[in-house]
Amino acid sequence: MNTTISFEPETLTVEAGLLEEILRAADVVGEAYGVEQSELSITLTDDEHIHALNKQYRGVDRATDVLSFAFRESDEPAVIGADFDILGDVIISLERAKVQAAEFGHSYLREVIFLEVHGLLHLLGYDHIDDDERQEMEAEQRFIMDKLGIGR
Fold it and tell me: Which regions of the chain are under pLDDT 70?
């Protein structure tokens, strides 16, 4: 997968190993779902920035752990003659990931990658609005996390 990682704020820093795992997870998802030629944008951020996005785009006035913005669901025009597909954007709050990793008793790496996988599955059309959808999405999350070898 052609994955671009950005930071908001730009001064945010992360370990190189985490960035490598984020790219690896995107590649595994791309291969598993036949979208390995797709383009993906991942933004690593803090609670303040994701709070503002959550409020602006979802009307929810609080920070969240991950947001997904699927390009396919937007009003953007198709890219004519391109040999790739634009999946969309995944925004992950690294602050929230640290808190949740501690709450759930697993590693920070596992939480960040789980949030990425969750966001990517949303871009691919999975959801968790009703119980059947939730069960299907949870099964897909387990499938990818197992492929990555990242357990709890």
Answer: 72-84
User: pTM (2 decimals)?
Assistant: 0.92
Residue 26: both structure tokens together: 């995107």
CA distance linking residue 69 with residue 22, whole number of Å: 18
Distant-in-sequence, close-in-space partners of 18: CB < 8 Å, separation ≥ 6: 109, 112
pLDDT of residue 18: 97
Residue with tokens 């930071």: 7
Candidates 16, 13, 18, 7; CA nearest to 43 is 7
Torsion of CA 8, 138, 70, 125, to 10 degrees: 170
Residue 92's closest CA among 2, 19, 17?
19
